């Protein structure tokens, strides 16, 4: 088994510096961090007391997602686990339930097992307290990079919001409502709404204020009576597909048909959207690809001392049957 002395020798630094880098308990330059991590990876060194010793000599990575029951995050998580399995890593999972206040505690719990690195989907990286702590190599998934955490894997949510809105406008719709989970709980939803605003402005149309509801419950009991009466939209964009399915149910309870009376579109491209009749019109996000990409990027950073970088994965507009021309 490799020793810390061998790591320090290969990295060309002192024993104390190598220890600080690998135990994340002191200052070191970015260049030295990369050298020490690369040397440790090449030699197969693991710090004493690390998670590798707790889980049968297998290193682990920590993953934070908003909800383990959402098919979007389940798809990303499955890809992360598959990629880490090939690399010989276990995966520790925590969820925030779309609650910014729970993120810091969730990340602290992951850090107790001294993971090789973290893959985090937070509510908003600009305000997340989870990102204030000193963290091991970290990749943001679905969040745009920050100055402190430049490694991120994303899809262009603002561009996707603009594209689905432009599509609806092209189908003749002018009064388009954006229905979303709370923006404070998801910067992805907020960016999609900004894309909606972009498209409405580009076409000289007056946007409607977004209707926001909690993310975690109530989709099956959604009440759109007031919104339909006061705003009279001909089309509704939901910030995710699960919410879009809730919208379709709510419209039916109001005695309205989709797309005969109101068109509906969503985001994510979950499988159940293809199973309903008619199939859901949506922006298909590459959730599985993004998860695998985030896992590979984290491994490259943690094991090979690769530089942090931002990777953007393409989305696709999937035209279903829930939008009609008017």
Automatic annotation (TrEMBL):
It comes from Rhizobium johnstonii (strain DSM 114642 / LMG 32736 / 3841). GO terms for molecular function: DNA-binding transcription factor activity; transcription cis-regulatory region binding. InterPro entries: HTH_LacI, LacI/GalR-like_sensor, Lambda_DNA-bd_dom_sf, Peripla_BP_I. This is HTH-type transcriptional regulator. Pfam families: LacI, Peripla_BP_3. The keyword DNA-binding applies. The keyword DNA-binding applies. Keywords: DNA-binding, Transcription, Transcription regulation. The lineage of its organism: Bacteria, Pseudomonadati, Pseudomonadota, Alphaproteobacteria, Hyphomicrobiales. Residues 2-53 form the HTH lacI-type domain.
């Amino acid at each position: 088994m490799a020793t810390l002395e061998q790591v320090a020798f290969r990295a060309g630094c002192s024993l104390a510096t190598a220890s600080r880098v690998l135990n994340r308990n002191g200052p070191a330059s970015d260049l030295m961090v990369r050298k020490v991590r690369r040397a440790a990876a090449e030699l197969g060194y693991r710090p004493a007391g690390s998670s590798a010793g707790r889980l049968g000599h297998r290193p682990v990575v920590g993953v934070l997602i908003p909800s383990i029951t959402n098919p979007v995050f389940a798809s990303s998580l499955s890809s992360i686990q598959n990629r880490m399995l090939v690399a010989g890593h276990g995966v520790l999972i925590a969820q925030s339930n779309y609650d910014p206040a729970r993120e810091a505690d969730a990340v602290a719990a992951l850090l107790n097992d001294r993971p090789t690195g973290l893959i985090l989907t937070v509510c908003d990286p600009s305000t997340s307290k989870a990102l204030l702590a000193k963290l091991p190599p970290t990749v943001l998934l679905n969040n745009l990079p920050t100055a402190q955490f430049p490694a991120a894997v994303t899809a262009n949510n603002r561009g996707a919001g603009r594209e689905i809105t432009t599509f609806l406008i092209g189908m003749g719709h002018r009064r388009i409502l954006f229905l979303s989970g709370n923006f404070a709980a998801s910067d992805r939803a907020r960016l999609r709404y900004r894309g909606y605003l972009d498209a409405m402005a580009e076409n000289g149309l007056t946007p409607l204020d977004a209707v926001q509801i909690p993310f975690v419950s109530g989709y099956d009991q959604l009440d759109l009576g007031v919104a339909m009466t006061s705003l009279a939209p001909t089309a509704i964009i939901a910030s995710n597909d699960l919410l879009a399915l809730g919208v379709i149910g709510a419209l039916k309870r109001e005695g309205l048909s989709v797309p005969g009376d109101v068109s509906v579109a969503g985001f994510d491209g979950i499988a159940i959207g293809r199973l309903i009749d008619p199939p859901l019109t949506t922006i298909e996000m590459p959730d599985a690809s993004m998860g695998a990409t985030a896992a590979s990027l984290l491994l490259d950073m943690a094991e090979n001392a690769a530089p942090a970088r931002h990777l953007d994965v393409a989305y696709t507009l999937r035209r279903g049957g829930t939008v009609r021309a008017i």
